[in-house]
Amino acid sequence: MVEMRVFGLTIDQESKSPIVVLRERDGETLLPVWVGAVEAMAVSLALNNEALPRPLTHDLMLLSFRALKAKLLRVEISDLREGVFYAMLLLEGREGRVRVDCRPSDAIALAVRAQAPIMVAEEVLRRAAAWEEHKKSPRAEMPVPDAATDMLRQAGAQKEADLLGGRLLREGSLPPEEEADEERFRELLRSLEPTSRRKM
């Protein structure tokens, strides 16, 4: 496995999903990982050493590990299938070492907070590079962001669709100067097609 560190955060210009960019600790290899908005915020807070009055979810997990006399040894991004990353936590406690399946976004947020190594399988790096090449094809789809990002996207689209739908119900149609809104409304409805058919 290759040890990596968080190089920075950015936004995918097409999907508007946050991306955590990992960089090889002793090299130049980069790995973009699509994450949810909440996890991106959690990583950003940890990178900037922001102190909060109450623990957030990832802080709570680390506090729970410590209370149970367990330690996060490292996180591993172990697989990439159909644009979806898979990760594991390696914990050590009283009963020995255990591996816990988790989303890579949570794994990274925990690793940054615990200052634990982020390890990535070489096969994942190879597949990710191949996926980046595949994305350049006109028919290629973007990697699927994690469930949190998709839920936020759907909630925002649903809210806007409800507002435009209410206006259409009250007025029967949109005013001529807002015809663009009517097309946007149709696009929003199309975007709300269930995404559960895609693997997350």
UniProtKB/TrEMBL annotation:
Residues 166-175 have a biased composition (Low complexity). Residues 1-132 form the BFN domain. InterPro entries: BFN_sf (IPR036104), Bi_nuclease_dom (IPR003729). Residues 166-200 are annotated as: Disordered. PROSITE patterns: BFN. Coiled coil: none annotated. GO terms for molecular function: nuclease activity. It holds the Pfam family BFN_dom. PANTHER family: VON HIPPEL-LINDAU DISEASE TUMOR SUPPRESSOR (PTHR15160:SF1), VON HIPPEL-LINDAU PROTEIN (PTHR15160). This is BFN domain-containing protein. It comes from Desulfovibrio legallii.
